[in-house]
Amino acid sequence: xxxxxxxxxxxxxxxxxxxxxxxxxxxxxxxxxxxxxxxxxxxxxxxxxxxxxxxxxxxxxxxxxxxxxxxxxxxxxxxxxxxxxxxxxxxxxxxxxxxxxxxxxxxxxxxxxxxxxxxxxxxxxxxxxxxxxxxxxxxxxxxxxxxxxxxxxxxxxxxxxxxxxxxxxxxxxxxxxxxxxxxxxxxxxxxxxxxxxxxxxxxxxxxxxxxxxxxxxxxxxxxxxxxxxxxxxxxxxxxxxxxxxxxxxxxxxxxxxxxxxxxxxxxxxxxxxxxxxxxxxxxxxxxxxxxxxxxxxxxxxxxxxxxxxxxxxxxxxxxxxxxxxxxxxxxxxxxxxxxxxxxxxxxxxxxxxxxxxxxxxxxxxxxxxxxxxxxxxxxxxxxxxxxxxxxxxxxxxxxxxxxxxxxxxxxxxxxxxxxxxxxxxxxxxxx
Length: 431
What we know:
Number of helices: 19
Number of strands: 2
Helix content: 55-70%
Distance between the termini: 35 Å
Structural class: mainly alpha
Shape: globular
């Protein structure tokens, strides 16, 4: 136990050091090297309002150009002369009132073309994407980043589906495809704000399938710790719980197909340990970000922490949401519900048909422990919406994607209840 604790502690601080160095290293990139591509990016940001819809009238296809402009503005205003302080403060230029969201696109344009002094700090945004934006702007603009995202996201998830297919997880792969489509994965690459979690989900899921099918759970547990840290570093609060729930669901699906008598740890122990390590990684990284910022800047960061928490859970004076409002906003945005009334009715009918299908074809011997775990996971996104109700209301156009875990969980429940399962070695499961 002590040895294992030391291992996880070492992994945590090594990962923290790597993330910190990665963020600071990009500060040394000069503005001149990025200027041509940054100007091009600023011009493209100004071509549209902050809420561009790739499919007209479909909220699920909305892109967050407000966040992208801020990311680009922070990346442009990074300063190699004082890299540590610059990385922590994440300051940028803002001429208009911050509530004038459409104005941030033009603020970015002015910042890049006239290089005024930065005047607005965003301490909570010392995130990894700033470094990625700076590196990519050495050779491409934001449109190029969107294109690269599209190619990589497609390649990662195609690779995951093929891997699951080869591992005999065919029905599970089909459920994953449905969940990705309902979460609007085709729109994800075209926004810098929430694409990084989908990178993490895809990569971690591939490793989970590889190690999970081999029973190498120690590697999987360490992976969940690093995943929590990476989630907080690259994408603190959009669809953060997906990086835990999707790999965990796949791990449970794999475990269901294996011979239980040969499996350790227990099902509950495996699930709890994965979730706890992810939580330690996520919360630990968040705490360390504030501690590192306080040490580097020599300030008390506690007011920033309490202020952001108060706003996001809906208890501050500037909060815009409430639990019910957050739930409804996200429920009606998932695809294909958000396409229109006809598709909303179709989705409801499909759900009723699915329930009837499960009732009619339900098997006698069902592993209830899996159903319970799948059911709990299916509900977690909605608990998240209610707790983080302000963020889930204001940013529903991308937080709705957390329901990808709900859709996948429903699919796995269906498989568990109606399908004859075969173990991963090809033998029929004895119920």
